[in-house]
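Next comes a concrete protein, fold included:
___
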Amino acid sequence: MKEKYFAFLRGINVGGHHKVPMAELRKEMEKIGFENILTLLNSGNIIFDAETDNADQIEKLISEHIEKYFGFPIPTIVRNARAIQQLFDENPFNGFERTKEIRFYISLLKKDIQSELKLPWASADKSYHVIEKKDKNILSVLDVSVTKTPKAMEVLEKSFGKNITTRNWNTIERMIKKING
């Protein structure tokens, strides 16, 4: 039975480095057996169907294949679309107002790492709040009106390691909309 998945690639198409054209990425995903492949934005967000229910196996397959094809390692994190849909349905940012300056983020961990960081946590200037960790997902809120150069990723990498990638919650909303029509 086919399952729908989301893949999130880290560090591609940033500042002219590690260029990965989405059309080529879709072709390479087809070559390794995935179907109904959609990409969203240029930052490596992929929706696809796979015959297996093993996300770790899919992650490894994608990562190894695209590294061979594009010539550089591309950290890849895969989630079952149902798990992201469930998180979305739980409305994790309920109680927070999203504005032009206040943004919601999800950081996806490769492994379910426990941290000493006491949640909820806020930076000293209150610009960055890590509100919750659910399984391998960290939910946070950033107020860019307080600081234009937040140290958000440094906090997460120090607490949870570097096998992590972050997306604006708007991206998740768009991916959910794509799978639900």
